[in-house]
Amino acid sequence: MTSAPVAAATREAYPAGLIDLVEQGVDVVAIDADLSVSTMGYKFGEKYPERWLTVGVAEQNMVGIAAGFAATGKTAFIASFAAFVPGRCFDQLRTSVAQPRGGLSVKCVASHGGVTVGEDGMSAQAIEDLALVTSLIPFDVVVPADFESARQAIVAVGKTSGPAYVRTGRPKVDPIYDSSYRFELGKANTLRAGTDVTLIACGIMVGVALQAAEVLASEGVSARVLDMATIKPVDRDAVLAAARETGAIVTAEEHQTHGGLGTQVARVLAEELPTPIGFVGVDRYGTSGKWDELLGYFGLTPQRIAQAARDVIARKT
Amino acid sequence: MPTSLAPVSIDELRDIAKRVRTDIVTMVYQAQSGHPGGSLSAVELGVSLFWNHLRCDPANPTWPGRDRFILSKGHATPFYYSILAERGFFSTALLSGFRSLGSPLQGHPSMSAAPGIEMSGGSLGQGLSFAIGQSLAARLDKRDYRCWVLMGDGELNEGQVWEAAMAVPHFGLGDRIIAMVDRNGIQNDGFADTIMKTNPVEMWTGFGWHVIECDGHDMAAVDQALAEAEKPHDRPRLVVAHTVKGKGVSFMENNPGFHGKAPTKEQLEQALAEIQGGLS
To answer: Per-residue pLDDT tens for B66-75?
Structure first.
């Protein structure tokens, strides 16, 4: 049944996805590190107390415990802020999770990703997390755009045998999808057809890219919009089709332009079909502010994406 | 599946310890790299554990009900691989490939690369956390296996150890996890007391553990300490084995230079003779 979409934070999808997994028979445990009220992990704990625990402010221990669970055959989720997972436990993710047996079944759901964590300021604004986790070889990395896709992404990674990282966000965002949507790990979703340029976005920037496409349309520019929720493995076919059919690409992410979505897309193009590409992201440390003010402060705006699109179109040969 | 062990005599354990020490110096010599010092110091602990305390079945190394041995001080692979081979998890012929291309026996353990390797290691401080996860899973699955975790004393510098140390009593895992510290007093850069002074007994006691001390090279004392650690107690148990780095080889004993260095041909011959002769 399709429910009426309402604004919701992607982090709210975490307990919903976990409950879906348990109801589908997946042997899930979930661990928090004293941020469960923010990650929403506590809601899963209320429903399945035997499957949930909190380890205090101890991210390294949390990862090790999850690895131990996974070594026994369980699917272990861990949750914290994206500034702390992977920031406070990268070596544990590498040594205890990524390397054993080609990758243990540990799934990180990191909330408060990017700059839209807002008032807490730069230390809480994770703009490096995607660079770190995409460097861990067996990890799938997903940055969902809204509640529905986040919920389905959590279920999808919960059913793979290896490790994964799903980044969720703090603010309530307008829905992109309703419950009729079917998320597929590793597949981009075309939200808008276009022929002059392709805007490839993830997370909160998907909605911003759709607005940018409207700006461009008013100027007679036809922009395709892809929701590249899975940034690793990136959907090579969708990237190459966009390059062939529109001849220009702009990526947009709430992350520094080094090591995130833009890097993944650029590599595909460099390897197979060099194409003009522009990168929209965050390349400096932040400050406090309301989340929507911060999007403007960092230039994560429809206007900047539209300008990047005009620039790459001008570079077409 | 074995759920109890017929005790092996202390004399037999001592003979096994000689074989393990012989393996250790030979492997490190052949590889011309590796960590002999902290391997030789842990021999009595490992032999007593694997032959008299750890419930395991070398013919069925993934038996779900097995006790887990977690080598948290992951550089002590010469000791670890020798014990696994001598205990029958894999052929002793594999030991000659230690640290070489194509061998499953990497310089630091790679989980499941060879039978009996329970956890990947090499980055210190991670074993106790791993054991907590396995033990919580055992509780959830109503299994009664135990996790034995071996740490080094230099390793106690790592903060993650203390995150895990406070979590074991908090989660009531004292009957599921037994921790051991190889207190050989030397770490990579030198004597532990000069690098970062710690007092393991006071520190672990302060974190809510029951600390059992023993002479880590007196096989009977080690065997008794591990037996005591298995007995129920209202606190989780930690065995601090007071040991000598490089034990059994005169020029390696208490010598920080042999934390991670291989012997020469002449040194190997001397080492093998001393091990056979039972230097003490």
So the answer is: 999 999 999 9
